[in-house]
Design brief:
The complex is a heterotrimer. In chain A, helix 3 crosses helix 14, helix 5 (105-117) packs across helix 8 (151-163) and helix 8 runs antiparallel to helix 11 (192-208). In chain A, 74% of the residues lie in helices and 0% in strands. Chain A folds into 2 domains: 7-60, no CATH class; 67-235, MetI-like fold (Orthogonal Bundle), CATH 1.10.3720. By secondary structure, chain A is mainly α. Chain C folds into 2 domains: 6-54; 80-307, MetI-like (MetI-like fold). Chain C has a two-stranded antiparallel ribbon with strand order 1-2. The chains are: A mainly alpha, B alpha/beta, C mainly alpha. Chains in contact: A-B, A-C, B-C.
Chain lengths: 275, 422, 311
């Protein structure tokens, strides 16, 4: 199958793949084109493809109309703290499960697996009530709370820790290191690629989450990009150029991260499946 | 468990409060206080901030943070805030929700403020609005902030092209329909008038123009028992269903009435005064449209409503909050509100300041209509019976039923809600 | 060297072993503690609480009263609930197979030695990293019956293009399905591609020598060896399809008369719990969804032996 593909087959494959690629990026192209139009240009019948001249004012208008800086900061803080706590805690738990023998560890791992099986909406209302009782509605900690720990992370990292040899543990014990030191100094650095994968996942899911930030943080200056963008629609329902400019602003940070860490993204995802 | 938590947090809270007041007792006059003022309209944020700035200048020890929460989440936020007794110090109140809040004892009674204040006099506000925010026990739980009603907007360019005269205060339903028929150009997707399934900016006005009503004054029966009401809603729905001079309910799902109007695809539309800023911001409508009073049926009528500023019953700074409320209701703040084009100020004599914000439009039409304006129908659970009405009328606007046929459903559903209020 | 006193030696090693065991237990529990406590507080306890809430009426201001099965009875008599259940199942029933077929096709085509692999991969994955609100908004605009690009393209192909994607009750769900397929093909393709790349070339070389056609190789080698990944993709796709919410929430206004033809169970859950503030009823709805998802998943896990090849 991998060997000689004749040119004709290759051309057919390319044609199919290009059609797919066009379908994938067309919405983004349309988003960018619309973001540079006037309202009049965007509502021509039949639709006008290109703006006469690209209207950057749409960007400054929407930037002024909404607290985008707060959106970026809130999203950034949420992602930062979720990555910090969930990767550290998951790595600790995974190390214990993979390298230590102690009673209760199987029960713990069962809890991890159970959590992964249950659709997250069932946690939502109690988590909301918890945040409310703590008086944390409309704060950054409210955004972080559901992501403090991660069953998925514990599961994902297991594959990386399992691959690391047990002998390291014994060698270090003889050298007089305690278990925390063994974990922190020896295993943690070796699991780096797993940690990076988990961090990427955490960032992506936190960034895409819509319902949680929508219900806990209702004040505009406490919203994330995702939720803030959704609220933009309610206010500017008719002004698609500005809505699209807002959308472009909201997706740019992730696109930049994706371009930089592309390999990590793809490897990270490939490791989650199938085995 | 929960009560323990409450006790604990109460103790901690009290402790902290004691420590704080203890520490600052000698300097309490200089202590800075920050009030949160919650609103739902981003478009008014600028005006509200300007008012806050003016207030801060006069009261350097008090800071006011204006906090915007989109309408969809505004009430959820207040409700959950009320549970944790952590509401913003001041916030906007709306007639649809007022009953919930007055019953829940969430709002501070400011009757004494109005009695004692030198500047605040409730007689200077539209009577019906004051009544709206006053409970049966004569507690005043909010001071009117603004009022708004509905205007007939028209596209001057389309009227000019068709060689027709612009709508004026003498217009009737017949004029509306005749002109709409001439102006409709289905080939080019241009419609004479925009008649979506809207209440406040739509058929509720027509019900009153036809001598009907939405709910009875004693808030026990539905107006759909009256022929005038049924007839008016049918006439309004027929603009799209029968005459095709308005887009259909399906088309409005894709593109709002504002979108049709802003893209020059409709000659007329009904828009509330709170939409003016959006019409002014859009280049096309800013240049090509203007506003006239609503057309008359058997009588002249228009729906109006008004927001109020209310204080949370749980505020930590009742004195400062009352000071700010007094300022919000003062002539100075009302004029700022008008000049920024936020909304038509509720204080009598200050509403003309709103005219200056939009010299390009004939805003006077909104002010003149107050002569015969009818307050937006409300009861305790307004949103619930509005929903009943809306659901039942969808098939009518889809052309699959007549108002006559669904009126029984509306009467039963609405009156059930009204009955549950007592 | 120290073998002259064997008794003492075994004693100390025993002691050391016991200490080591204690030490391990201590550290084991310390290390899992944050995650364990977090999962108990944030996940396990909430499940119990949701079940509890579903038997209660929760008032606007937080009081809850036990009402037995009333929420469930209300649900079974609620036409909106049944409609949203059927919408959800129909959505999953179409979106998942289409996504799996298209992502398999893309993965197989990309697993050939052609140029531009990484470019294609980057582009196909792009929808996955965009904020769902942005995605739904641009699609809403693309589907617009008057100004939308999609109707324009259909028209330019010579068809009647007056298609009301966002308001015709028989089409609205299809609009959501299209967006759903579009946003998940790239993700699944990457999972499948990873599986394909693990398949040893020897199989194909042997088959080619036997004169098997490419098509036959695909069905006899590629597909069977890809079943573990296909199984994973299928299970996760069904779970996430049954939870569809974001796109519907952003593409359809509450005032849209066709909303009932498109709203999913999670949408109704959200609406009841956080817009109408009936958290008891919302909890009952979400419990039904969770049960459905668990049942489907268990059936798949049991059925996998029949077709999944784990060698």
């Amino acid at each position: 199958m991998h060997k000689k593909l004749n040119t004709k087959t290759k051309t057919i494959i390319h044609v199919i793949l290009i059609i797919g690629a066009v379908a994938m990026i067309l919405p983004f192209v349309w988003m960018i084109l619309t973001s540079g139009k006037t309202v009049a240009e965007s509502t021509m019948i039949p639709p006008q493809i290109l703006p006469d001249s690209f209207r950057w004012e749409n960007y400054s208008t929407v930037w002024d109309a909404l607290p985008f800086i707060s959106f970026f900061i809130n999203t950034g803080l949420m992602i930062f703290f979720r990555i910090l706590t969930s990767t550290l805690f998951s790595a600790m738990a995974t190390f214990a499960v993979a390298k230590l023998e102690f009673p209760g560890k199987n029960v713990f791992f069962m809890i991890v697996l159970t959590q992964m099986m249950i659709p997250p909406q069932i946690f939502l209302t109690p988590q909301y009530l918890l945040v409310q009782n703590l008086g944390l509605l409309n704060t950054v900690p409210a955004l972080v709370i559901p992501g403090l720990v991660s069953a998925f992370g514990t599961f994902l990292l297991r594959q990386f820790f399992m691959k690391l040899p047990d002998e390291l543990m014994e060698a270090a014990t003889i050298d007089g290191a305690n278990i925390w030191q063994i974990f922190y100094r020896i295993y943690l650095p070796l699991a780096k690629s797993g940690l990076v994968s988990l961090a990427i996942f955490t960032a992506l899911f936190a960034y895409k989450d819509l319902m949680w930030p929508l219900i806990v943080n209702m004040s505009q200056n406490k919203m994330t990009l995702s939720a803030g963008l959704a609220s933009l629609q309610g206010q500017y329902a008719t002004n698609y150029p500005e809505l699209m400019a807002g959308s472009v602003l909201a997706i740019i940070p992730m696109v930049i991260l994706y371009v930089i860490f592309q390999k990590r993204f793809i490897q990270g995802i490939a490791t989650t499946g199938g085995k | 468990m929960k009560s323990n938590w409450k006790k604990l947090s109460l103790t901690i809270g009290l402790g902290t409060a004691l420590i704080l007041t203890g520490c600052s007792s000698d300097s309490s006059a200089n202590e800075d206080v920050t009030l949160t003022y919650s609103i739902w309209d981003q478009g008014q944020a600028e005006g509200m901030n300007a008012i806050a700035d003016a207030f801060e200048e006069e009261n350097p020890t008090i800071q006011v943070n204006v906090e915007v929460t989109p309408w969809d989440q505004y009430w959820t936020k207040l409700e959950s805030g009320a549970q944790g007794e952590s509401l913003p110090d001041l916030f906007w109140m709306h007639s649809n929700e007022f009953a919930n809040y007055s019953e829940g004892q969430i709002l501070m009674d400011v009757t004494d403020l109005a009695d004692e204040s030198e500047t605040l006099n409730m007689a200077d506000f539209p009577e019906e609005l004051v009544e709206l925010y006053t409970t049966e026990n004569d507690e005043l739980l909010g001071v009117p902030k603004d009022y708004g009603n509905i205007g007939l907007w028209y596209n001057k360019t389309l009227f000019d092209e068709a060689g027709l005269d612009y709508p004026d205060e003498d217009w009737t339903w017949d004029d509306l329909l005749e002109n709409a028929e001439i102006l409709t150009d289905v080939e080019n997707d241009v419609y004479g008038v925009l008649a979506p399934l809207n209440r406040e900016e739509g058929y509720h006005n027509f019900i009153h123009q036809n001598g009907g009503y939405v709910i009875s004054e004693d808030k026990t029966t539905s107006g759909f028992r009256e022929d005038e009401t049924v007839e008016a809603v049918q006439w309004y729905a027929d603009l799209s269903v029968e005459h095709g001079v308005s887009p259909t309910v399906g088309q409005f799902a894709d593109n709002s009435n504002l979108s049709f109007f802003q893209s020059g695809r409709a000659a007329m539309g009904f828009f509330g005064s709170w939409m003016i800023s959006q019409l002014a911001e859009n280049e096309y409508t800013n240049e090509n449209v203007d506003v006239a009073p609503m057309p008359a049926g058997t009588e002249e009528a228009v729906i109006y409503n008004g927001l109020a500023n209310s204080i949370s019953a749980f505020t930590d700074y009742p004195e400062e909050a009352r000071q700010f409320l007094e300022f919000l209701s003062s002539e100075e703040a009302m004029i700022i509100q008008g000049e920024y084009g936020s909304a038509i100020p509720a204080l009598s004599g200050t509403d003309t300041s709103f005219l200056e914000a939009y010299p390009q439009f004939n805003i006077q039409a909104y002010l003149d209509q107050m002569e015969y304006a009818v307050i937006k129908p409300y009861s305790k659970y307004t949103a619930r019976w509005e929903d009943v009405e809306n659901q039942a009328l969808i098939p009518v606007f889809e052309g699959e039923a007549t108002v006559e046929e669904v009126s029984e459903t509306i009467i039963t559903g609405v009156e059930e809600v009204l009955e549950s209020e007592n | 060297m120290e073998a002259h006193n064997p008794q003492v030696n075994t004693l100390t090693t025993k002691k050391a072993k016991l200490n080591k065991k204690k030490n391990m237990m201590f550290w084991g529990w310390i290390l899992i503690a944050p995650t364990l406590i977090g999962l108990l507080v944030l996940n396990i306890f909430p499940v119990i609480q949701t079940v509890y809430l579903s038997f209660h009426s929760v008032s606007t201001f937080g009081q809850s009263t036990f009402i037995g099965l009333e929420n469930y009875i209300k649900m079974f008599n609620d036409a909106d609930f049944w409609q949203s259940l059927s919408n959800t199942l129909l959505y999953a029933g179409i979106q998942v197979p289409v996504t799996v077929v298209l992502s398999t096709l893309a993965a197989v085509l990309l697993n050939t030695k052609i140029k531009g692999l990484s470019v294609y991969r980057t582009l196909y994955f792009l929808p996955m990293i965009a904020a769902p609100a942005a995605v739904a908004m641009v699609w809403r605009w693309l589907f617009n019956s008057q100004y939308g690009l999609i109707n324009l393209m259909i028209e330019s192909l010579g068809f009647n293009a007056d298609i009301q994607w966002l308001s015709d009750p028989s089409l609205v769900l299809w609009a959501v399905i299209i967006v759903g397929v579009w946003s998940s093909v790239g993700y699944n393709m990457i999972l499948l591609l990873a599986g394909l790349q693990e398949i040893s070339k020897d199989y194909y070389e042997a088959a080619t020598m036997d004169g098997a056609s490419k098509l036959r190789q695909f069905f006899q080698i590629t597909l069977p060896l890809l079943t573990p990944q296909l199984f994973f993709v299928l299970v996760t796709s069904i779970i996430s399809a049954l939870q569809v919410f974001d796109v519907i929430f952003v593409m359809f206004d509450v005032t849209n008369p066709s909303l009932s033809s498109v709203q999913s169970l999670v949408y109704v859950f959200f609406h009841e719990s956080y817009v109408l503030n009936d958290k008891g009823y919302g909890s009952a709805i979400i419990i039904v969804l969770v049960l459905i998802i668990m049942i489907i998943t268990v059936i798949q896990l049991l059925g996998q032996k029949k077709w999944v090849n784990y060698d």
